[in-house]
Specification:
By secondary structure, the protein is mainly beta. About 35% of the residues are buried. The chain has strands spanning about 5, 10-15, 20-25, 35-40, 45-50, 60, 70-75, 80-85, 90-100, 115, 120-124. The strands form 2 sheets. Strands 2, 4, 5, 6, 9, 10 and 11 form a 7-stranded mixed β-sheet that branches. The chain contains no helices and 11 strands.
Length: about 120
């Protein structure tokens, strides 16, 4: 069984930064691609960013491109989402997920294991 635990969320002013972490346990992190998704109140869960198993390939939603950076440290079994120039519309619960397919899909259905989520609130 693979377990994921996000951390690093919080309250930040518009224009500020946060770094989310996703600690993976149960199986080697290098066996999985990782994705980040977010869900705002009353909305569907949306793709944010993904990274393949080696870290060599990344992809981003258009809404965060140029502001967010996804990365991973396989020996530490941890993935990251650096969020800069945050906007009020970035407010959501952020989830990390892993996919044994290895390539970092933008489709939530491709991901087998999910974390519990961490709240990010951006004030204007």
């Amino acid at each position: 069984q693979v377990q994921l635990a996000e951390s690093g969320g919080g309250l930040v002013q518009a224009g500020g930064s946060l770094r989310l972490s996703c600690a993976v346990s149960g199986r080697p992190f290098r066996d999985y691609a990782m994705g980040w998704f977010r869900q705002a109140p009353g909305k569907e869960r949306d793709f944010v960013a993904a990274i393949n198993w080696s870290g060599g390939t990344t992809r981003y939603a258009n809404s965060v491109k140029g502001r967010f950076t996804v990365s991973r440290d396989n020996p530490k079994n941890t993935g990251y989402l650096q969020m800069n120039t945050l906007k009020p519309e970035d407010t959501a619960v952020y989830y990390c997920a892993v996919d044994s397919g290895g390539w970092g899909s933008s489709q939530a259905a491709e991901y087998e294991y999910w974390g519990q989520g961490t709240q990010v609130t951006v004030s204007s």
